[in-house]
Amino acid sequence: MTRKINLLLLLFSLIGGAIGFGIGEVLLHQLSGEVPSIVLIGLYFGILALCVGLSCLIAEMIKPRLNGSSWRQRYVGASWKLLVPATLVLLFALGTLLEFVYELNLNGAKQVKNIVFVIDDSGSMDVNDPNGDRYEATKMLIGKMDQDKEAAIVVFDDRVQLLQPFVRLKNQEVKNEVYSRLDEMEPMQGGTNFNLALNEAMEQIQGRSTSRRGTLVILLSDGFSEVDPSGVLSEYQSSGVAVNTIGLGLDNPEGSELLKEIAAVTGGQYQDVSEADQLSFAFQKIYDNIGERTLVTERTGVTQNSSYYMILRIVFVILLGAALGLGLGVLFDNRHLAKSFSIGGATGGVLAGLLLEFGLSGADFPDGIIRLLACLILAAVIALFTLVVPVKDNQPRISERRSRFGGARSAGNAVGRRQGENQNRGF
Fold it and tell me: Which whole number is the average pLDDT over 176-195?
């Protein structure tokens, strides 16, 4: 047993990790909202494993430092056949499973899946939002919502109108239908009544709610209305539904104070917006904090600072790192490398998991750098760990050992049969 390293494999492993990261990032940004996140994260880790495995295989073919020249002469064909199952398939399956578990609400926290837009259409909105930017902001946010989410739209003045009942935003066709309803809406232009609007929103929530789907409300207004906190707001409190409020061009301090109180009482956030063209940013800020979580992106919402999900992420990345190492060992059909790479993958997973947990911030470019570093750490530590866990020289293949064991057993059976035959003949 000797400690050794293939520096070419280390270099190629890093290159493979970088390439896998690049492909994964493209998928993460292009398919987000179009493909279920559990599948997307599975693909992310599967492609990373495939690129690292392919790079390591090429490095050992060029310079078989770890497996020996006999491997290159006799077993490299088998390694090519094992490449996809031992990397892409294995890590895709495990990544999908772990992401599924990570998204479960095992600690009682609900991910927000339903959003109710409660939009003021009183007469004063003609002054504060003459171009209808509030509806463009609504369409913008609906366009960004994932296919597993649902939306409803309530518009109000001193009356209330259910413009769009809850609908699953499963494809672009459904979203276009919602856009059409917003475009075809007739102005209401009356006074302002928050009670009616919030009661209508709660009726929709209660009629649609399930035990596993969280809901939030976005209430936008430029005015003031009497609201009974012990009435409608108590229903939001008991249902655990946050009302996020946005005050548009509010010169009346009573209006802003009321919206702040509604948000505070229900667990939501208040934003003050001076110009209507800033509403898209306000809507986006709310959406960015609704409680999304994946293994490779920042957690938001009520689970953002959860110790439970912090530990879960780190443990799952450790498992993924160990699986990547094991897959490389299977790829080379080498039990000693499988042991070394698996331990190295788990060690790299600790570092990568801690980096993801404490380094992600929600900003696109910095988070991309964090994910790149995590991928490179996994690739590098796996390749370096043959210096820590020794590898046996000239070791037989795993499959060859099985064949020998089976052959020896067959030979023993044959000897037994011959002995039995001799004994029979001796009677």
Answer: 90
